[in-house]
Every structure is written in C-alpha cells, then in structure tokens.
Amino acid sequence: MKTSLAAACTAGVTGAAATLPGSSTGVEAPAPAAPVPAAGTLPIRKGVLLGMLPKSLSYADRFKLARDVGFEAVQAYTTPNQSEAEEIKKAADDARIKIDSVMNEGHWEWPLSSSDPAVVEKSLNAMRTSLHNAKLWGSYSVLLVPAVVNPQTSYRDAWTRSQTQIRKLIPLAEELKIVIALEEVWNKFLLSPLEFGRYVDEFASPWVKVWFDVGNIVFYGYPQDWIRALGQRIVELHLKDFKRREDGYAWVNLGEGDVDWGEVRKALAEIGYSGTATTELEGGDEAYLRDASQRVDRLLLGK
Q: pLDDT category, 247, cuts 50, 70, 90?
C-alpha cells in the first residue's frame, strides 16, 4: 500500500477491527453518514489520493473519473520513471484536474533520521524526485514524513538528524517553488501540536510547512485543537476518520468515526484555511468515490 500511513499503522494499531485506508480492495458505496449542520461554505479545494482510484483503469480514465465524481485535485505518488510522469501529467491536463501534491515515497523505508548515510541519501534522492515530479505536474507541495523514532533512533536524534537533512532540501524546494509539507503519522515523533509548530518554525523557511491529517490525531488528541495550535503553518490536509471500539480501533468512512467534523470545520474557518483537503480512504468504484466526494461536501465544506 502506498499511503504515508502504511508502515505506521502496521505497528501502531491492533485489533481485529482495524482496516487501513488506501488499500487496493474496492468497496461498494455505503449508506450516507449522518448530516452535519452547515455553518458556511469553506473555500477549500476537494482532492482525492490517486491510490483510491481503480487501478484497473488507465491514468487517463482514473483522472477523468476523479473529476466526474466531483473532485478538483489529485495527490499523486513519487514517480521516478519520466515517461510515466509525463503520462500522468497528460492525463491530468486532459481531464482538467489539478495534481495538487505529491505523496513522497521512501521516507519509511529510508528515514531521514537514520544513522546510516546510505539510507539517508536514498531518502534525499526520493525527495528530490518528488520535488521534480511536483514541478512537472504544477503541484503546490510534497508530503514528507520527517523522521521515525524507533529502538535505533532516539527522539533527540530524530529531531536533529531530520532537520539537518531537510535543510539540504530547502534550496531545491525554493528553486522549484514547491513547499515541503511535513506530516505527523504515528511515527512516534512530533506528538503534540506545540512541539510540531516549534519543529517547523526552527527552519525559518516559507518552504517548510505542515501537512495535517485529521484522522491521524484522533488516536491521542483532537483535530480541532491541533488545527488551532498549528494555525497558518498548515498548507495541506488529509481527510479520514477513526473509530475507537471495545475490541480495538478501526479506520472508517468519513462521518462514521470519532472526528467531530463540525468542530474541524469551525477550526479551519478560524485559521483561514483555503488549500486542498485530500481524501485518504479505501479505494472503490465510481459510486463509492462519488459518495466520498459528497461526504466531504457535507461534513467539511458545508455544502
């Protein structure tokens, strides 16, 4: 699975009920979630992760489907093959849909916080590829998981090593005019919004900001609290929902978990957020994707 959450979820969530977002298993459109009272429409672009679209379709048909069911943007993945990257660009252009961002790949397998220079260089190269992909596609940002804390890497080392390596990427990000958007994703790092804000602020760069995932935070906090604390550092959003159960935890469809979408919408309005909100859920067919798009309208955008 290609979402940034894949490795973290394998280690971080247990219980028979757990189901990971972004898997290749298609699902039929479920019953609509309960409506949330509207409180004004938010000026947010509605996006979808490329991995949610049917892999049996060509890129051209996937991007056309995304547009047809109501999405305005797509988050694509790191694509080292230049010919494939050009195919993706043409598919998006023909469908008149924006590739808003790139999901960097490699930051779990090759974390920037590693003590091994060879591992770090692989991670830096993956980010360089992602940044060039973003430039080709006309994207705004690249998502990066900045560090991973594990038995081999202390919290302090994760902080200092990752900042050192990200600083090496800032000149390229500035040259290409692409934002490096850092995400907290169950990597045992940046475990409070105040700390996350400090970590980003220490770069003192407009090219390093926050990618905020609404669902990731529910495990140990409240999304609306993190949104208010991080404020205008947030430049991109991931949307998913998370449900606590007696026998464990589960990723669920939007509006079926513990996220208070009314409060999330209120917090986003307070900080003046006007970027893209990208759904990061199970993949599915046209009916399922249309339903997901409509859930974003109802729960987040206030339509």
A: confident
